[in-house]
Specification:
single chain; alpha/beta; eight-stranded mixed beta sheet; six-stranded mixed beta sheet
């Protein structure tokens, strides 16, 4: 396997310029979740002349599956990359910045797809030496519930698959670090929208109105007690009101207010507690102010749980590979964002791990920021890290 890994690393190194070119193409031409038609076409065209099986429009949308059949019998592994962008106006000043107003690859999905395409092309060249089958899952719509993963799974993308692996590049983690965590690695999520209905009026006669601004303000404050007073201090939960739409004239009491936000949890049991308390507080406050409400409360992405044995296998694979560009392998602990990779992890033993993308001495911006930036050296690291793990799994992971 050492010789095969060396061959793979050589191919990846030779294709690094193409890798960066593809990533920059995607960055310049981002598409929003469930709208990634041109991105999907570009991906499908890339595989058109390659010795692999390709399925397009998987899940009734823009999903793509690429199967690479090895020359020897072995396990069936799926590796996933997402390719949707975000509704953000880019402010990086990059020469390959987004050409689409108010749409930006601000989470690294352009890099995920580019490294996966180059890795797949390299594995195809070595397919006769491989054992088993590798399924490349090019997934749309990670950012918007219900998420692209759910539809692709319902369409059968995991049929026959034994395990699933994925990588996320991380703008806030050091370049050269590869990071992993066994167990609950990403939070589960719920999103909500509350519309409070009262009675409008004039600021000079508040007694004749029923002020939804005051009621909504009370709710914003009160709902924070769910985390501080209803959740175990050793557990994890957040309740965020991200939008408070109460704009109007200075001397007018509004008859309705709309609040939107999200909930994050690290245990599925906590989800029920937060939901129950949220609805109880909302009902109580609205009753006390004599107003009505509409609530849309949607539990979406589950907690993403990395299988312990699969994660141990990833760590062993990366340790043995001794990738020159990797400075250290780090146990990083759980991460607070949510990820629809969680749906794959619910269906098959999986591991979702991380590649650092922040170069020391350069500005650092979080994901979903208009100045979000990843150092492109992380892309080759991602390709080599996933490639080394794939080979280890195919030849050494039979005990999983």
């Amino acid at each position: 396997m050492d010789d095969l890994r060396a061959q793979l690393f050589t191919l990846l190194q030779q294709k690094e310029a193409e890798l960066i070119r593809i990533r920059r193409h995607f960055h310049e031409h981002p598409e929003l979740s469930f709208q990634e038609t041109e991105t999907a076409k570009y991906i499908a065209d890339f595989y058109a002349d390659k010795d692999c099986d390709v399925q397009t429009k998987v899940g009734g949308g823009n999903g793509i599956l690429v199967d690479i059949h090895g020359g020897k019998k072995g396990p069936f592994l799926a590796i996933r990359a997402d390719f949707d962008a975000l509704p953000i106006q880019e402010d990086t000043g990059l020469p390959f910045a987004s050409r689409t107003p108010n749409v930006m690859h601000a989470c690294g999905h352009d890099g995920h797809t580019a490294y996966m395409m180059i890795l797949a092309a390299s594995l195809i060249e070595l397919k006769d030496q491989l054992a088993g089958t590798i399924r490349i899952i090019h997934q749309p719509a990670e950012e918007v519930p219900p998420g692209g993963a759910k539809g692709m799974i319902e369409a059968g993308c995991l049929d026959g698959v034994d395990h699933v692996l994925g990588i996320h590049v991380m703008s806030m983690m050091p370049l050269g670090d590869v990071l992993y965590h066994a167990g609950s690695v990403h939070t589960g999520r719920a999103t909500f929208k509350v519309v409070m209905h009262g009675k409008g009026g004039h600021g000079s006669t508040p007694q004749d109105a029923n002020d939804t601004i005051v009621a909504a303000s009370q709710f914003v404050t009160a709902v924070q007690t769910i985390v501080s007073r209803r959740i175990d201090p050793f557990d994890t939960a957040t309740v965020t009101i991200g939008s408070f739409d109460g704009k109007g004239s200075a001397n007018v009491i509004k008859d309705s207010v709309t609040l939107e936000g999200d909930v994050r949890i690290m245990k599925e049991e906590t989800r029920a507690i937060v939901g129950k308390e949220f609805k109880q507080i909302l009902s109580g406050i609205c009753q006390s102010f004599g107003i009505s409400y509409e609530l849309d409360y949607a539990n979406d992405y589950p907690v993403c749980v990395n299988d312990a044995k699969t994660t141990e296998m990833v760590a062993k694979a990366l340790n043995e590979a001794e990738i020159p560009e990797v400075k250290q392998l780090v146990k990083c602990g759980p991460q607070t964002p949510s990820e629809d990779f969680a749906y794959y992890a619910k269906e098959r033993p999986s591991c979702f791990f991380f590649v650092g993308a922040h170069k020391e001495g350069t500005p650092m911006y979080p994901h979903h920021h208009p100045k979000f930036y990843i150092d492109e050296d992380c892309l080759l690291i991602a390709a080599k890290s996933m490639g080394a793990t794939v080979l280890y799994y195919l030849f050494e992971g039979v005990s999983l």
